[in-house]
Amino acid sequence: MKTQTKCTLCLSTLFFIELMPIPFTAIYSLYAVRKRPAWLPATVERLYADKPVDPNKPVEEISLQNHDAMKTRRNCTITLSLLFIIDAIVPTVVPLAIYIVRRRPNWFKKVTLKLYADQLPETIDADEDETSELTEPSEVISEILDQKFQELERSNFDFAKTVHRKND
Fold first, then answer.
1. Closest by alpha carbon to 32, among 42, 20, 22, 21?
2. How far apart are CA 35 and CA 131, in angstroms?
3. Would you give the distance in Å from CA 3 to the centre of its chain?
4. 8/28 Cα distance (integer angstroms)
5. How far apart are CA 47 and CA 103, in angstroms?
6. Which of 94, 116, 121, 127 makes an SS bond possible with 15, Cβ 3.0 to 4.6 Å?
């Protein structure tokens, strides 16, 4: 099951919990911003991994060098606190989260990267990458991985055939 579907089902369940008088999702969102659990950037990365890319739009590179993650954390806390107050009257956090999961806007990924800027590994400079001697071995590794992937697809297809035959 895709990450997008899993997140949507989870948020749909949270929407029913949200009908209680306590805005649970807003509280949990505040927890996620303040404590910054390790699973959040990994989930966001998986969520955006299979997002279709528009070839007409240029890919924006996000520079996290010298970025203050505490400033982003403070801004997110203020925004979620305001949403918490609104959410006590009308559920807004879950519909917003469902919108983010289904549409996958670029701004959400940027905010998440900025929120975790001090915890993410440093990126390699473009100059170092060009002079690196890893270009040839990476091509070899890429070919090996492609072969392994094709073998895995064949074995999965063969397994699916045998399971289908057993069911008949």
1. 42
2. 39
3. 8
4. 16
5. 10
6. 94
